[in-house]
Amino acid sequence: MLQKFNEKNRDLVININGKLLHRDEAGISPFDSAVQGGDAVWEGLRVYDGKIFRLAKHLERLRSSALALAFAEIPSAESITAEIKRTLEANNMTDNAHIRLTLTRGVKLTSGMDPRLNTAGPTLIVLAEHKSPVYDKSGLSLITSSVRRPAPDVLDPKIHHCNLIQSILAKIEANHAGADDALMLDSRGFVAETNATHLFIVERGTVVTSRLVACPEGITREVVLGLCRDNDIPHEVRDFSLTEVYRADELFCTGTMGELAPVTQVDGRPIGDGDAGPMTQRLAKLFDACVDAEAEPVLD
Hints:
This protein is 27% helix and 28% strand. By secondary structure, the protein is of the alpha+beta class. It has 2 domains: 7-130, D-amino Acid Aminotransferase, Chain A, domain 1, CATH 3.30.470.10; 140-294, D-amino Acid Aminotransferase, Chain A, domain 2 (Alpha-Beta Barrel), CATH 3.20.10.10. The protein is globular and about 55 Å long.
């Protein structure tokens, strides 16, 4: 599942604090908080036919994360939306695009962790790319990582921060094992998520996903749970173990970057019959219909 360079992205225009720059010219200060210590928050957005799915929810989560990190300034949702629109228009993007939205604390007067050193900020980066959903809808393989997801007493996952070293370490393990991604457990040994997505198991017709103990408040996760409620699909939010993954009828992952994708193998063991299951396929179709009906217009 290695992403490849898309020729359409060769001359991307990047937006940094409202300034539009060619991707090869774009840059932020070495004194920026994101460079100094990963002191930033982020969101991933997907563009469908001039619309963005759950834009308001993503911007709400961005603001919530910035508040938790005590950012002195946070741009309004309206101003961020305007910069997203400018960026999409500059790149002539209307569909099948992904946006990485990053908000840093800003620029420091000298190196150091202390937020009081920040004299200018925040820094808003809008990176839009031509990018299809990245996951293979025919089925993914996972390995269980040795790297654990922390609980809120270590680092609260409700803060959607840019410190992604744990995810990168887990992904390195998956790469070496020849798997698509890594399944990550929490400190108690229960399933948290993958290095990049939330996980759902299906057992005897019931859809089950982890509690928000060691995984973030996923936007797509929330949509899937809503689809279960609206369509009378039995579902539970609870702790579940690796044993339950191995014996599940189906397993799928969710995220803005890849939407819904079936997982057909974990640690070399097939899940269910080794193919995308009927519940996964049903929810994927319901998700597509939800996107068509509810994505928020951004471009005129």
